[in-house]
């Protein structure tokens, strides 16, 4: 995760599906030897997650963010995920769990120590039914994983049920760490820690692409592609108007949304390994899971269509100021998530039916006795 001081770097664009797919895969499938974090403007160790850490007065608020070590036919990769309330299921990105063999989940990584571990088998993976493996940005890049046994000493998250465009969010994950103003890619030297930062949801992908289709000749908008759900878009700001990519695109396309120049030293963006990680909005009393980190794109890709210049502050750093990121909105999948997490377990159902049968037998005997 890259954390930034004050940096705007926002440029939204019509993202070529092939490019967005590659960006998402790159953001998720990180070799196990390279893992960790976020990109900001100050030292990554200043943004480490520590078990029990308080956010808005809630102790252990980010303890439910887990590190996923995923074994696929191609090897081992890393993603992140968020524990749901109840402790049995986690939310992550669908592209993280495609073609998997097994998943090991760790909570509370801090300097190498781990507070909780769980396993997940392929039978415990639920990919959104509209996910095709390559329709990144469609709103379908979301999955649930069922832990082999529930986590009871870490509080899970409730879902945001509202469209949170325009709201500030807290992002957390186990991707690589680095600096938004750096000329080099994030490294994995801080990989034994989770990281966090803040950003703002500027616009959703459907709105962005509808507007762009009218403003950019030949842009191409496919309404059916965005039917599965909602994807939020954010840019990585450094406090300057020049790198407020989404704001500049809004100015060039009719002001269908607004985008500021960032949150100053708190500004951040997810990196390699943060895919599937949680993005949380504050309800006034709890952190609600609002988004699932999905993809990143260099800001300069957006500049071409909108005839903008200087969108990406560091072209040699794919997680620098001016770059863009996307995340799947949970509010558009609440019904699907609840349809899975609310289903009674097989053994529970068996006990229930056994209990009903027993009650029926007792009732018949009473009637016979009478």
Automatic annotation (TrEMBL):
Presence of the UniProt keyword Signal in the record: yes
Highest taxon above the source species: Bacteria
SUPFAM superfamilies: Trypsin-like serine proteases
GO biological process, any: proteolysis
Domain Peptidase S1, residue spans: 49-342
Signal peptide residues on this chain, from the entry's feature table: 1-37
Gene Ontology MF term list: serine-type endopeptidase activity
UniProt keyword annotation of Signal present: yes
Entry keywords, A to Z: Signal
Entry-linked InterPro entries: CLIP_Serine_Protease (IPR051333), Ice-binding_C (IPR013424), Peptidase_S1_PA (IPR009003), Peptidase_S1_PA_chymotrypsin (IPR043504), Trypsin_dom (IPR001254)
Name this polypeptide is given: Trypsin
Annotated organism of origin: Duganella phyllosphaerae
